[in-house]
Amino acid sequence: MNSRMAATLVLLASLILLAGWLAGRTGSDILPSTAYRVEGSDFGARLAAQGASGVVRVPPGDVYMTARRWEFSPALELAPGGAYRLHLLSEDVVHSAAIGDAEVLLEPGTVRVVSLTAPPSGRVRIQCAEYCGLGHTKMIGSIEVVP
Predict the structure, then answer these.
(1) If residue 88 lies in a helix (H) or strand (E), which one and from where to where?
(2) What fold is seen in the domain 28-145?
(3) Are 101 and 124 in contact (CB under 8 A)?
(4) Which residue spans adopt a coiled-coil conformation according to this UniProt entry (predicted)?
(5) Among 84, 56, 73, 91, which Cα is nearest to 140's?
(6) 87 vs 114: CA distance, rounded Å
(7) How far apart are CA 66 and CA 35, in angstroms?
(8) Is pTM, for the whole model, over 0.90?
(9) What are phi and psi of 24, to 5 degrees?
(10) Domain spans of the chain?
């Protein structure tokens, strides 16, 4: 077998594997949706009304979270199967929120809205995916699903 034929077989096998992987995906319950500019006081008022620190249990609907070196705040408790619009705002530098299979870039002053449906139980992982300083690797938020 010559090298050209071997390369063609490797390419064909890769395409078949990719097609199988894509066909096996069921879709994500986490979808990036929109972005909007916000005045800090407006977002801050919404966050304060919801609860801005500690662990906050939120009903389905709009929920607010901030990103800052090196944390996502507040820790959230979601209802199983609830539909949420997660509003995310970076307070200091550029961060990127990796939530399940989705990832959104968080720029200071711009709110990103991510639609998600809470799973029946467990945890929805949120982690910073944009290097933001020495504590970056420990920047993991808490989103728990509780009945």
Answers:
(1) strand 83-90
(2) Immunoglobulin-like (2.60.40)
(3) no
(4) none
(5) 73
(6) 7
(7) 14
(8) no
(9) -80, -15
(10) 28-145
